[in-house]
Amino acid sequence: MPKLAEIAPSSKSLSPEALPPRVAALIYDGLCTFEYGIVAEVFGLSRPELGGSLFTFSSVQTEGKQNVAAGGLIVQATGTAQDLERADIIVVPGWRGKDEPVPEKLCALIQDCYARGALLFSICSGIYVLAAAGVLNGRSATTHWRYIDDFAQKYPDVTLRPNELYVDKDNIITSAGSSAGIDASVHIVRNYYGAEIANSVARRLVMHGHRHGGQAQFIEQPVAKPGGSHRLSDMMDQVRSTLAETHRVATMAKLAGMSPRTFQRQFQNHVGLPAMQWLAHERVTRACQLLETTTQSIEGISQTVGFESPDRLRYHFRNVLAVSPADYRKSFHRSV
Length: 336
Prior knowledge:
Blueprint: E1 22-27, H1 33-44, E2 46-47, E3 52-53, E4 56-61, E5 67-69, E6 73-75, H2 81-86, E7 89-93, H3 104-115, E8 119-123, H4 127-132, E9 140-141, H5 148-154, E10 159-160, E11 166-169, E12 172-175, H6 180-193, H7 195-204, H8 230-240, H9 249-256, H10 260-271, H11 275-293, H12 298-305, H13 310-321, H14 325-332
Parallel strand pairs: 1-4, 1-7, 7-8, 8-12, 9-10
Antiparallel strand pairs: 2-3, 5-6, 11-12
Helix pairs in contact: 1-6, 6-7, 8-9, 9-10, 11-12, 11-13, 11-14
C-alpha cells in the first residue's frame, strides 16, 4: 500500500505542495447528523495506515453560535470564516427540510465559494441549498429518490438524473440518499489520490470501493395498496409462489376472476404498475435474493424466476436496477 508522500494528487486544481486538501463542512440549525457523520468519517479521520491525514477538515457554523442537530444534539463548531475562505471542498451535509427556506447569507456564501473555484458537495437534501444559491441552474444533479418530484417542481432549470448515486459535474458533486454520500465521498478521495487509496478508505468503512448501479436498487418494491381487491392480492401471492411458470395478462386475469381488460385497469389502480411490469419486478426481486444467498448460476436463476433465458434476465435486471446480475452478486453476495 503506498503512503501519502509517495502519491501525486490526481486533482488538477492542487499541486503536491497543496496537499492535504482542505474540507469545510457547513453546520446549520437542524443539522442532519448521519450525513454530517459521513463527512467527518471520510474527510476528518487520520489514516495512520496510509501515513497521515488525507484531508484537513473543519466544521463551520453558518448560523448562530450553537445549533440543534437531529437526535437531540447541541452542536458548536470550531471552524472559522478563514477555514471557509481557504477550503478546497465545501460540503453541505443535508438540509433541515425540503420546504425550509435557505437563508440569503448561506446562498451568498455558496456563490462566493463556487466563484473562487471551491468544489461544492451536497449529500441528500443538501441539494436544496445549492439550488437555492443558483449554482445548479443548467446543470445535472441528483438527490434522494423521495425528493425527485418535489425538487423538479421547485427547480425546473436543474436537470435531474434520478437513478444516479451521485453526479460529478462542473466542480459540483450532488449525491442521492444518505448512504450515497459515502459513495460520493469515496469518489472524491479517488479523484485526489487514486483507486488504491480510495479502496483502503472504503475497506475501513466496510464497503465497496465503487458501488455499481443506481438508486433503483434501493427503492421500495411496489406492493398492493391496503384495502384493495382481495382477488388481486390473492392472485399476486399465487404468482409470486409460481414465478417459474409462464404468466401472461390473460392467465393472471383468470386467476383473479376478471376479464383481461378489467384486470389490467384494476391492477394498474391497485398496484400502480402494469401487470407485466410488476411481474418483471417480482422476478428481478427473487433473482436478487438468489444472487445474494446462493451460488446458483445466472442461467439457473433465470429459469427459477421465470425468465426464458439468461439474456432476458440480464435485460430486465438492467432495466429495473441499472446493474448486471453478475455485478449485483459481486456487491451483495453473502455466505449462508
